[in-house]
Amino acid sequence: MIGKIADVRYSDTTERPPLRAHVSSELLRRWMPSGDETAMKTAMYNTLFFVIALMGFAGLFAVYHLLYMFLKPMLWAALVGTVLFPFKRKVTSVMRDWLASLRETHTPLVVGTLMLPWNWLNNIAEQSWQLMASRTGGYILLAYLTLKILTYERAFMSIFDLIARAYEIVDALIAVFTKKWILPLVLLYFCAYVAWVYVQPEGQVNKKFARMLSVPMWFYALAFTAQYFGPLRVFVFVVSALSIALIAAGVIGGEDEEDEKATIDRGVAELVKEVDEEVTRKLSCEPPVSEVIEQTLQLDEALTGDSYLRILFGLCFLLWTVRHGWMLFLLFLPLTFAAIKRAGEMLGVFAALQSGIGSTWGSVYGKLKKLLDVTIAGSIRKFIRLLFTSDRLFVGALEQSMDVVSSVVVMLALALGSLLMVIFVVMQLHGETVHLIKLGSSVISSHPEWLASAVNYTEGQLAEHDIDNYVEQAYTQGRAWLATKVRSLADASDTERADLLENQVKLMVDNIYNMWEQRTVLIQNDSSKRGSTNVDFFHHIKQATDLAALKEELTLIVKENMDTLMTIAQSVWGVLASNMSFLTSILVALLALVLNFGMELINSLIEIVVFMTMVYFLLANSKQRWLPLEWMSSLTPELVGRGTHVTATDSDSPTITGAIE
Fold it and tell me: Membrane-crossing residues (predicted)?
C-alpha cells in the first residue's frame, strides 16, 4: 500500500527520498495531525541531541577520571609556571644584557664571571644612592622616623595625649568666639577693615597684608558655622581652616591672577585642538576588523603594574627594619660605598690610581712575562690564552640557550625556596613543641602560679594538694581504661588469662611512670645544684627533645619490662590464634594498607615527574609571552572572526542540525 502511494506521488523523473524516511514520514503523517508533524520531528531531534550530548559529557568525565593523575599536576604546573614566568623572563633579560655587555666590551667570560660580585655591589650601591636621593627616599626616611618615634616606649600614647589637648584648645576657642559679646567686636573690625581697603589708592593695596588682616573674620565665620555641627564642630573647624589656608597658599588649585587669562586662552586652544583631532579621527577610514582584534585581544598585557606589591613589601621590610636596628648598618654599607665612589670620582683619586696601576703594570709586565715563559709550558699558555680570548662561540651558544638555562635556574630556586620553607616550618614546630613540653612538665611537676587565684575564686574550697589528687586520679583512670581495653582482647570464658594480661599491663604502666618520675626528680635536682649559673639555651632544647636520651629511656624500659612484654605478646598471640578470622582480617587490612601506600607513593612520584616536566616545558618554550596565554591569544582572533550566522529557515528546520543550533 505504501509502495503504491509512493508510485502515485512521485513519477520516474523526480528524485525519490529513501524508503525508510518515506515510510516514517507517512506513518507520522497518518498518526499525527497535519499541524503537529513538524513539532514532533523537532522534539525528537532535540531529545536525540540531548542524549548524544549527555553521552559525550559522560565520556569526557570518564576520560577526565582516567587522566586525572596527569591532568592535576599539569594544571598545577600551569598555575606555578604563571607565577615563575616573570622571574624567568627577568633572569633571561638580565643574563642576556650581561652577555651582550661582555661581547661589546670584548671581556672574557671568565673575567666577567669573576667581576660579577663587584658589579652587583656597584649596581646595588648606585640604585640605593639614587633611591635615597629622590623624593621616594625622603618619604622612606620620613616613614622610618615616624615609625621609630611611634614605637618608642609610650610615644604613641603621648601623641594621642597631644591630640586630645589640641582638641580641648580648639574647642575652647570655638566656645569663646561664639559668645554674644564677640559679634559687635567682629562687626567693628569688619567696618574698620573695609574702610582701610577703600582708603588705599587703587592698585596699591598690599593683598598679602590685607588677607592677613582678614584672618580674624575668617576665624569667627568658621567658628560660628562649626557650632551647628555639635560633637563634630572641632573636626569641621580644623578641616575647613586647613582647606582655606592651603587654597590661599596656592597649594590646592592656586594660580596667580596674572596667569588666569593665559590659562584660559591655553585651555581654549587645547579644547579646539582636541575637537579637531576627534573630527579627523571620525572622518578617517576605520581599520579592518582583523587589526582591531589583534590590537584589542592581547591577553598578556598587564592591566596595572606591580608598584602596589613593591610598596607593600617595602613597608613590611621598613617595619621589620624599625624593629631590628642592626639592619641600618647593612643598609648604610651600599650608601657609604656609593658616597666614597662619587667622592673619589670628583677628587680624581680613582683616575690617579688607575694611571698608577697602569704604569706599574707596564714596568713589571716584561719581567713577569719572562718568568711565566720559563715556568709555564707553551701548551698550557696556549690553553689559557684560548680560554681568555676565544670564548665568543661559547658565549653565543649560551645566549641562544638562555631560555633553557633561566628555566633551570628558576626551578632550582623554587626547589631551594621550598626546602628552606619546609626547614623553617619544621624549626617553628620544633620550637613550639619544646615550649609545650617544658610548659606541660612544669605544670605537672610543680604547683602553677594561678593556683592561688583558683583558691580565691573557689572561696577556699580548692586546697593546694587537690591538683596532685586530680593528676593521680587521671593516672589511675587512664591505667584502668587501658587495662580494660587489653582485657577485652582475651576470651571471656578464660578469666585466668584475662586477669594475668590485665595485671601485666598495669605493672608495665607503673614501671614506666616510676621511671619518668625518677627522671623528673633528677632533672630538678640537677637544676637546683646549678643554682644561678648561666645555662646555654640549646641545652634546654636538647634536654627536652634529645633523641639519644629518648632512645636510652626506651631501651631501658624495654629491658626492665622484657618479661612483661613477652608475657603480654604470648597472651595476645594466644587470643589471636584462637580467632583466626580476626587475625586474617587484620593481615588483610595491613596488606591493603601497605599496597595502598605503595600505589599512592608511585602515583605521587609520577605526579612529581609530570609536574616538573610540564613546568620546564612551559618555562623553556615561553619567550617574551607566557605560552598558555600565547595559545589563547592565537586562538581568540579565529574564534571571534568565525561567526555563527544562522538563517531563520535553517534554525526553524526540524533536523538534527537545527536542534544543535
Answer: 43-64, 181-199, 211-229, 235-254, 311-340, 346-364, 408-429, 572-595, 601-619
